[in-house]
Amino acid sequence: MSLRRQLLNIAVLLAVIAMVAAGFWQLHRLSERRDRNSTITSRSQLPIAEVQDLAGIDDPLDAGREIEFRLVRAVGVYQTDDQVLIRNRTHQGTAGFWVLTPLRLQTGAVVAVNRGWIPHGAGTGALPAEFAAVGGEVEVTGLVRATVTAAGLQQPDPASGVLVEMARPDLARLSQQLDHPLLPVYVQLQAQSPPSGDLPVPVPSPDLGEGSHLAYAVQWFVFATIALVGYPLILRRKSSSGPK
Known about the structure:
- The protein is an alpha/beta fold.
- The protein has helices spanning 3-44, 51-54, 64-67, 171-175, 213-240; strands spanning 49-50, 71-78, 84-91, 94-105, 110-119, 137-146, 165-166, 182-193.
- It has five helices and eight strands.
- Strand 3 and strand 4 (94-105) form a beta hairpin.
């Protein structure tokens, strides 16, 4: 067998291994997605709870992982001077921000509330009146969400100064610029009484679809099968059509 044929065989074998690995990786992602969907469904069906009954100011910041997607209620007053915008968020294909506003509870503790999405151009820091939080006491219901920190190659927010924009809902960073203790979770608003205007737009509940992982896995396995079956046939055809 020639060196060229050997190299070609190795290349085809490596391609098949890579395609099979990609197929199993997609199946792994599908399993993760199904597990997450099951967690979201089971937790969101539990009875509504007071947010301060599920999370306390002395709890670790990762406590939100164990109660994320629980439906909660919070009663308090928005601290609009302390709100921040979470940049690079989209709604129906339009770029904008999430508005993360601290809500001071009757206990004196604070919980951050993601009041929803606003478009770019709405301003930073002090928002125009049409996006402002309702004054006085409000009742908020929504889903518990866990803090988000920089991962991998992501850059964290500046460690000092008062931020009016943040890259993500990093509750440890937000707590640095608040005068009251912050709960280790934030609330993704679904409803509020009294209601606000049309903006901010509440962030939709998590998507419970399974995505395209299964279809991609099938495609990779089909490609691998084609290579395993087709390559030997091509070699046989070339061999039979060669010089006698």
